[in-house]
Amino acid sequence: MAIVTMKRNGLGPLRAFLVLVGVSALCSVALGTRKGNASLDQRGHRHRHPGHLSLHRHRQRAGKEGQVLHRSKRGWVWNQFFVIEEYTGPDPVLVGRLHSDVDSGIGNIKYILSGEGAGTIFVIDDKTGNIHATKTLDREEQAQYTLTAQAVDRDTNKPLEPPSEFIVKVQDINDNPPEFLHGPYYARVPEMSNVAVQAGTSVMQVTATDADDPTYGNSARLVYSILQGQPYFSVEPQTGIIRTALPNMDREARQEYDVVIQAKDMGGHMGGLSGTTEVKITLTDVNDNPPKFPQSVYSMSVPEDKVPGEEVGRLKAKDPDLGDNGMVNYRLLDGDGLAMFELRTDSETREAVIKLKKPVDFETKRSYTLKVEGSNPHVDPQYLAWGPYKDEATIKVHKYMIPLYTDIEQFFSINADDGKITTTRPLDREAQPWHNISVSATEIGGHHQDTKVRVNIKVKDVNDNAPEFATNNEVLMCETVAPGKVIETVSAVDKDEMAHRQHFTFSLAPEVTHNHNFSLKDNRDSTASIYVLRKGFSRLTQDVYYLPIEINDNGFPAMSSTNTLTIRVCSCDSRDTILSCNVEPYVLPAGLSTGALIAILACIVILLAIVVLFVALRRQKKEPLIVFEEEDIRENIITYDDEGGGEEDTEAFDIATLQNPDGANGFLPRKDIKPELQYPMRPGAGRPAANSVDVDDFIKTRIAEADSDPTAPPYDSIQIYGYEGRGSLAGSLSSLESVTTESDLDYDYLQSWGPRFKKLADLYGTKDCFINDGDDGEDS
Q1: CA separation for the pair 182, 144 (Å, rounded)
Q2: Is 70 helix (H, G, I), strand (E, B) or coil?
Q3: Domain locations in the chain?
């Protein structure tokens, strides 16, 4: 029968037992899935232990009637192995053992393992058949491995049994937290949603996923809970459905809610992993607010010279709902002015516009009354009990009137019967202390007389403004300030009028009352002095201090405010003159003022300008003085390391020796070196006369002298040619004497000078040919 071999590998006794029991339960289901009786061994016993594969040889057995029964070769008895994922023990994990019934234990059988992970993840002891996992496995990467086992003869490697496949399954542990793949979520739910049905109105469902095995234990069993958003919303623990939990949530009071949902595995028990997501829920509008006129009575006026169709006045009912839910329709209900006025609705502003329907005559009737209704055309039956969704207002059209141009913002109204002037809204003395309006009165009767009077209205003051600092609230203080010194005297102003003997009082805010840097003394004359309490201030440590000061105006009712005084630490000289209030100058060398730094920078700029000018002048002097218009033919400055070569070699000698043949009879000192020792002319070095100089002999003589002259430098010197010879048929070659027009001189005689001047002859001959060709082209 099969024997299970399993190693604890660091697992506790209880856990090892659970692993065995759990694997046994799983394997008991798997047994019998291959070839019917594959789960039974030769004796008909069911395999109860997983982690073991047994090989059986082909056998014969006699039946009950004595007949010989031939059994087919069964090969491997199919089974499954299990290994726990994420195992981090020091030793390889024993997965199971392979055993063949032909293995007599003498070591002649060799077990071979092949397939997924064989040799890398799973290794087998070829003698015992023990299979070990050498690496940490992750079920989420690969849940199972298919392997092939075979028993072969150790000496001949011949198979003793046919190969058979088996599966190693990776057993899951809870190592993956739940994840919300589609978060964050956005949802909308109507305001005033009902919570009585099904524990609240459904908002949306959030779903988390867990990569752990859902078929094993509670690793992937999720429970949802709400971390933020109570008491307004709740979530179903098993489904993740978010529902409203608070009735009568009003969009006009609060429109958006941020809800945080948590999903926890292991059925929500301790030790489970969790993940969270955010849900932004927006309340949508419903028609739950009726329209409301801000005033119950509106006063309007109209002169009798207005024509029908002209506007008399406007009014509007307010509805905080949105869109169609906040739409208001207007109509005239009652009043003695129904025949004289009509109502229209402005489609853009949704205001009720009162217009003149017929001409009015104030001698006949001096005032009219209208009743206006504003109502919602779209009413939700669900909220009918919250109605009625309409409101009424009264309009009085007077005789007395205030011309609009004198009261543009319509702060005042006048009673048509008694002429009493009243305010329509609160006035602000600090914004406008005086209001100058006109009142027009029309006489009733046949005389048709009217008059106007100017009314000046002064707004009385009430103490409704808090005091504040009178000037800039920033103070500059030296680092070397002495303790007890007054660094600032603060004062205050108030937009309200100050009563007799009323003054401001000052005090430090409670949070800085016990600070160790500054103190405050109230001078009882609406000013206060700021004192320094210590020494040793440093900009490097702290360059700005903020001192909150409370100011009270002692009015009725008393008004106070907290103003912050900014104290900036600055560097000063010995006379306490402020030099700088920035931290940056501290990185510069000590003892240098701003003026010194500017002077240094100016000197550096001037020096740079001088250097640039000097370099430019040097470059300008190096430019050649002789430039031909058509060709750039000039004397070449050639640097060479050796001398010699043929007559075609222009780099083998110093052409400067040809400067002045007249100096052949005398010694011409070099200009590029300072002569320390002059050697006398070598005796016997005769030179031909200047008038009979042969150029070839002259050059050879100069070369010989240069070779034997110990004072000659090993480099060429730069010479400026002011003399080019005399008695030449070609004349001067200097560009300074060249004409600017084309020269018609004939240089054919240069061809007769011999090969030494062939290059010069070819140069001028080529020029002449080019000119002739150009002339021929023009003639043609």
Answers
A1: 29
A2: strand
A3: 80-171, 179-284, 289-396, 399-460, 468-580
Kindly report the number of other CB atoms within 10 A of residue 556's CB atom: 10
Separation between Cα atoms, residue 196 and residue 248, nearest integer Å: 11
Nearest one of 180, 173, 263 to 219, comparing CA atoms: 173
- What are the C-alpha distances in Å from 405 to residues 401, 412, 531? 12, 13, 56
Tell me which architecture the domain covering 80-171 has in CATH.
Answer: Sandwich (2.60)
Could you report the per-residue pLDDT of 500-552, keeping only the tens digit for each? 777 899 999 999 989 999 999 999 998 999 999 998 899 888 999 999 999 99
- The residue type found at 63 is G
- d(Cα 414, Cα 333) in Å, to the nearest integer? 24
Number of Cβ within 10 Å of residue 9's Cβ equals: 17
**Which residue is it, tokens 């078929």?**
215
What are the tens digits of pLDDT across the range 99-127?
Answer: 888 888 888 889 999 999 898 999 998 88
E-assigned strand segments in 19-163 = 52-56, 60-62, 68-70, 75-76, 80-84, 93-100, 109-115, 122-124, 130-133, 144-153
Instruction: Compute, in degrees rounded to 10, the torsion defined by CA atoms 355, 359, 365, 367.
Output: 20
Report which secondary-structure segment, H or E, holds 186: strand 185-190
- The answer to whether domain 468-580 has CATH 2.60.40.60 is yes
Q: What is the DSSP string of 202-223?
A: EEEE---B--S-TTSTTTT--E
CA distance 604 to 625: 35
User: 289-396: same fold as 179-284?
Assistant: yes
Q: How far apart are CA 319 and CA 328, in angstroms?
A: 8
Rg over alpha carbons for the chain, rounded to the nearest Å, is 57
Of the candidates 431, 392, 396, the one whose C-alpha atom is nearest the C-alpha of residue 411 is 431
CA 545: distance to chain centroid? 32
CA pair distance 539, 550, nearest whole angstrom: 27
Q: How confident is the model at residue 242 (pLDDT cuts 50, 70, 90)?
A: very high
Per residue in 405-453, pLDDT (tens digit) is: 677 777 888 776 677 888 888 888 888 889 888 877 665 544 455 667 7
Q: Cβ distance 19 to 11 under 8 Å?
A: yes
Report whether 275 contacts 256 (CB < 8 A): no
At 639, list the tokens: 């640097």
DSSP classification of residue 590: T
Type and span of the H or E element at 602: helix 594-622
This prediction has a pTM of: 0.42
C-beta of residue 201 within 8 angstroms of C-beta of residue 298: no
Residue 437: CB partners within 8 Å, gap ≥ 6?
402, 403, 406, 407, 412, 454, 455, 457
Given a contact cutoff of 8 angstroms between Cβ atoms, the answer to whether 463 and 503 are in contact is no
d(CA 550, CA 531): 16
Query: Spelled out in words, what is the top-level CATH class assigned to the domain 179-284?
Result: mainly beta
Backbone φ and ψ for 298, nearest 5 degrees, come out as -115, 135
**CA atoms of 328 and 293, how far apart (whole Å):** 11
**Distance between CA 457 and CA 776 in Å, rounded?**
107
Structure tokens at 165: 């496949």
pLDDT digits (tens, 9 = 90+) for 609-637: 999 999 988 887 655 544 444 444 455 55
The 10 Å Cβ neighbour count of residue 747 is 16
For the domain made up of 289-396, give the CATH fold: Immunoglobulin-like (2.60.40)
Please give the Cα distance from 195 to 239 (Å, whole number): 18
Q: Give the residue among 404, 425, 294, 411 at the shortest CA–CA distance from 351.
A: 294
Q: Give the type of residue at 78.
A: W
Strands laid side by side in the 93-100 sheet? 75-76, 52-56, 93-100, 130-133, 122-124
> For residue 526, what are its two tokens?
């609406």
